[in-house]
Amino acid sequence: MKTTQKWVLALSTILFLIATSCVEKSKRDKENHKNEEHQEEEMAKAPNGIISLDEAKILCTNYEDRRIGGIKEFEMAQNPDKEFIPVQFIDFDFKTIQKYVKYVERKAKKANIEPDSLRIYLGNYGKDGSEPNRNTVFLLPTGTVNGEHGGFFINSNGKAELIRNYWPKNGEGDQNGQKSKAGFLPSLNLSLYQDGSLILNRGEGGPPPFGDF
């Protein structure tokens, strides 16, 4: 009889613990679900910096009036026999941007750095580039490394390092060294740190598609 009571008591305890565990798991699942819904709601809200269609039209018109003519005149002076149409936008595939952000986050997490912004640099392919003399942009993540903030890459040791420290310095401490001069690629091994670079380029550019602005 006593043995039976012990078994009943043990079974009751086990069932109670299982039930309690299930209740706690259910509560955690509900809390996690609420947190996920809250995060999705926050992500769906318009971020700071969204502008109106009218303001975008003004920005585009200002660029056309204040920049396009000068760029075209300069380029045509270099090569008068070929018409030059300046770039007014750079188009990145939406899925490419999504993949890029996830790629940066994954690489940064392994390197123990928190990306805090994407810096968009203006650039030009130069006369010998893939798209001769065309303007372009490239994206660079920024973060803080050893108390200093700036664009970063992942070095050969898998650690985050500021790009400004990648360029050799001359005797005065200026970042001249092998840094590229206007129109020329740097005289260093271009594959160096290629796997550690987090810079995105190769968007499609051109004048605004008809009907946008």
Structure notes:
This protein is an alpha+beta fold and 213 residues long. It has 3 domains: 1-45; 48-86, no CATH class; 88-206, no CATH class. 40% of the residues lie in helices and 16% in strands. It has 3 helices and 6 strands, in the order H-H-E-H-E-E-E-E-E. It has helices at residues 2-44, 53-78, 94-110, and strands at residues 89-91, 117-124, 135-145, 148-154, 160-162, 204-206. The chain has a 4-stranded antiparallel sheet with strand order 2-3-4-5, with helices on one face. Strands 1-6 form a two-stranded antiparallel ribbon. Strand 4 (148-154) and strand 5 (160-162) form a beta hairpin. The longest helix is centred in the first third of the chain and has 43 residues, at 2-44. The protein is elongated and about 105 Å long. The N and C termini lie far apart (89 Å). Residues 177-193 have low confidence and may be disordered.
List its salient traits.
213 residues; alpha+beta; 3 domains; four-stranded antiparallel beta sheet; 3 helices
How would you classify the helix and strand content by structural class?
alpha+beta
Q: Tell me, what's the shape?
A: elongated
* Helix-strand topology string: HHEHEEEEE
Give the number of domains.
3
Number of helices: 3
- Which stretches of 5+ consecutive residues score pLDDT under 50? 177-193
Terminal CA distance reads 89 Å
Radius of gyration in whole Å, from Cα?
Answer: 28 Å
Task: Give a count of the beta strands, DSSP E runs of length 2 or more.
Answer: 6
In what range is the share of β-strand residues? 15-25%
User: What is the average of the pLDDT values?
Assistant: 78
Main sheet makeup: 4 strands, antiparallel
Q: Could you give the order of strands across the largest sheet?
A: 2-3-4-5
**Helix residue percentage:** 40-55%
